[in-house]
Amino acid sequence: MKKYSDMEFLRLSKGQKFLYKLLRFFASIPGAIGSLFLAIGRFFKDLGLRIGQEFREIVTTFTGGDWKTKTSYFVMGFGSIARGQVLRGVLFLVFEIVFIFYMVVAGGHWMSMLPSLGKVGPHEEYSQVLDAYTTVYGDNSFKILLYGVLTVFFIVAFLYTWRLNVKQNRISEDLIRSGHRLKSGKDDLRSLVDEQFYKTLLALPLMGILIFTVMPIIFMILVAFTNYDGTHDGYNNALFGWAGLKNFNTMLSWSGGGNVYSATFGEVLTWTLIWAFFATFTNYFLGVFVAMMINKKGIRLKKVWRTILVMTIAIPQFISLLYVSKMFAKNGIVNGLLLDLGWINQAIDFWGSTAHNALLPRVMVIVINIWIGIPYLMLIATGILMNIPADLYESARIDGANPWQQFTKITLPYMLFITGPYLLTSFTSNMNNFNVIYLLTGGAPINASASSAAGSVGYTDLLITWLFKITTGAGAQYYMASVIGILVFVVVAVISLVVYNVLPSIKNEEDFQ
Question: Buried b vs exposed e over 205-223: b needs ≥16 C-beta within 10 Å?
Fold first, then answer.
């Protein structure tokens, strides 16, 4: 695609400028994706070089270190204790003792069971006491996978701590050779509340992120490679095991039985992207418009109008959306009023019961989402509009700019610059907007072309509501839900990275400074 110079671009008409920018955006997507893969490649290359460097340093530290350092390779903290750094040495030693104890008592068992995820499932055994056959429960695949992941994390933490122990010995030797004094335990404690206080503050949040965010994500990813479902729950019914890439092949394959899932996934993904686009930008532009109307000079009772809009935020969506759903039902208030007025001859099926009127419920959820989202955008836009310098509008009026030109040349660029990252996060959150779809339509109308094995997906189902259907009921398919979760993450990550790198607020941070 030809790239215009600044002078050539200025000569274009408004429509040509818009088309040029749009084509440039789509033309930049392959390059952005290519840059992403190159960055990933560089990351793994640098990671490999870093690991090789660490191994070389470990070997040279051992061969060039004294007997205290060499002993610390097997007894963590020995070198620190022998050199007078008792507190550090004791912490290293205690961690090693705890690790060995855990691995002997439990960790080794979970690691040995991790490849199979259990060998003995629930079975019937004769009980001489009861004189009857009773169900005896064996291994628990869920616990094996969970504690196996925990054990792997513990092993990684131990290896990292062991590496710190080795590095600490090398640093201590270098300090002693150069004639410097080693830090005492009091110095270490004083450091944790002084120059290294950031480590003290971040220790607990980092631990929380690892336990409550990183580990569940890794566990969810691993579930995608198993056959974990309602009939293979890992304990009560039957054990589940590793399935390799079978689930991904079922979801993405366009041949045989996989065609159901791949076609359904493509259709639901397309509607999810359409929904996210309209739900984001209709709320955005209408919210900005309402904020501008309320902030306009001469408008009275501004606080009253803002309060009325904020009231919709105060009401829980669980109540308001269910109420709206009943209002637009076939026997709801809206249909009853229209029939009484004689405007319609029969009730309108707003939420759709067949595929023939699937468009109407899709439009309805987008329109009702506007009612929910405008107050948030109104509040955000109000704060931003109040910070736009009044001199810009005054200068524009002197130059003869009409209100529409002021909006397109001053207000809108300023708003988009400030709220660009918000638009991106709003788009991704709308892709996972469970409440609006589930409480209004429940995904209806049902998509007859989708197999019941795919969770009886409907025409208004988003990926998140489809995932919910797959994980509920006796035939829950947790492994397939995990696959969908991974694919959703990939789609959202690609969109976020591409859009984030083309946002004006990221590329041209100094424009409005």
Answer: eeeeeeeeeebeeebeebb
pLDDT tens digits, 101-113: 999 999 999 999 9
Q: Which of 201, 225, 279 is nearest to 483 (CA)?
A: 225
- The domain containing residue 394 runs over which residues? 251-507
Residue that is written with structure tokens 């629930």 in the block: 122
Assign residue 61 a region (left: φ > 0; alpha: ψ between -120 and 50; beta: otherwise): alpha
191 by Cβ neighbours in 10 Å (0-12 / 13-18 / 19+) ranks as: middle
Q: Number of structural domains, the chain?
A: 3
At 168, list the tokens.
């600490």
Task: Read off the tokens for 432.
Answer: 């996972």
Residue that is last in its domain, among 204, 226, 244: 244
Give the number of other Cβ atoms within 10 Å of residue 38's Cβ: 10
- Are the C-beta atoms of 282 and 274 separated by less than 8 Å? no
- Give the CB-side neighbour count of residue 122, counting CA atoms within 13 A: 16
User: In the predicted model, is pLDDT for residue 48 greater than 80?
Assistant: yes
262 and 193: one domain?
A: no
Smallest CA-to-CA distance from 261 within 480, 447, 474 is with 480
**First vs last C-alpha separation in the chain:** 32
Q: How far is CA 364 from the centre of its chain?
A: 27
> 268 and 189, same structural domain?
no
Q: Answer yes or no: do 261 and 221 share one domain.
A: no
pLDDT tens digit sequence for 100-145: 999 999 999 999 999 999 999 888 888 777 778 888 888 999 999 9
Which long-range CB contacts under 8 A does 405-410 form with residues at least 24 apart? Answer: 407/292
